[in-house]
Write a structure and sequence with these properties.
By secondary structure, the chain is of the alpha+beta class. The protein has seven helices and six strands, in the order H-H-H-E-H-E-H-E-H-E-E-E-H. The chain crosses the membrane at residues 45-71, 83-102.
């Protein structure tokens, strides 16, 4: 009589594969819906956490299937291996976000000018839904930023504003920052129609009012009594550019404002980047700012000032 060996089947291994595959499909659909579709960030984050939880439930089942394969030679070893691969993707993404959440300061925005940050042309205001509410940055937040990102500082270039603006636009394009609105402070905007244009050799427009001589002779004014030079000169040129940036993989949105200030023969550039949702940006705001500034340095190589 021939003895026929019947190989046992590990049902936990096949169940783990189905559960892990469902978690992976949920993660992929949520990512595509958020990156290219209408899915909002709070909803995407909720689905991401759910997919990671489902994937985590498949891990012990897959390990049980591998253990039965080792002990009894049960079928399901390949299914357990596939389950671990499927589950690893959403779990790894959540773990990659958990590490900076625990190790980096709880900031939702950063700026290169902590004393006088650039102002948003349109103040970001989005429904946070289930995410923790956030408040305006405090002095403690700015100090935490300086301690965490000491190299995040503004730039100053020896060049006119329009020349630096070309570099800013090129750097924004290469760093995937979409500039949408701008606001320019024009010193000539206050000049009324019909006013005679200033001389070509004059660097700034002439003052609109000129002191009228007294009708009777008197002592000449001293140097201290004369108006200061900066009272006769127009306000220095300033340009604000606002837009948005998205991370490459998950498409997390960030609001960006770039400020250009022209001062005599130099132009300074400062940026301010804020996450659109949540009270913690996971350090991504600083990464976006540093990437933009590095690209700007490369665009304006040779005219950077001290």
């Amino acid at each position: 009589m021939t003895v026929r060996y019947v190989r046992p089947i590990s049902h936990s291994a096949y169940a783990a594969r189905r559960i892990a595959l469902a978690a992976l499909l949920l993660f992929v659909l949520a990512t595509l819906g958020h990156r290219f579709g209408p899915l909002r960030t709070p909803d995407f984050l909720a689905l991401l956490l759910v997919s990671a939880a489902i994937a985590a439930a498949a891990v012990p089942l897959s390990l049980l299937g591998l253990m039965r394969l080792w002990q009894k030679g049960a079928e399901g070893g390949l299914a357990s291996a596939k389950a671990l691969i499927y589950a690893a993707i959403p779990i790894a993404v959540v773990a990659a976000g958990a590490v900076p959440y625990l190790t980096r300061p709880a900031l939702h925005e950063v700026t290169t000018d902590t004393e006088d940050p650039p102002l948003f042309l349109t103040e970001p205001d989005y429904d946070q839904e289930w995410l923790r509410g956030r408040t305006a940055p405090t002095l403690a937040d700015r100090r935490a930023q300086i301690g965490a990102y000491p190299g995040l500082t503004g730039r100053r270039y020896e060049g006119a504003l329009d020349r630096v603006l070309e570099g800013v636009e090129a750097a924004a394009l290469s760093s995937r920052i979409t500039l949408q609105t701008r606001d320019e402070e024009d010193p000539d905007a206050s000049q009324e129609p019909g006013d005679a244009p200033a001389d070509e050799g004059v660097a700034f427009p002439l003052p609109q009012s000129v002191p009228v001589p007294l009708p009777r002779p008197g002592p000449r004014p001293t140097l201290e009594e004369l108006p200061a030079a900066n009272e006769l000169l127009p306000t220095r040129g300033e340009l604000l550019l606002q837009g948005e940036a998205r991370t490459f993989f998950l498409g997390l949105p960030f609001d960006v404002v770039i400020r250009l200030r022209e001062d005599e023969e130099t132009t300074s550039v400062d940026v301010r980047i804020a996450s659109r949702y949540g009270a913690h940006d996971l350090g991504l705001s600083a990464e976006i700012a540093e990437d933009f500034l590095d690209r700007l340095d490369a665009e304006l190589l040779g005219i950077a000032g001290g």
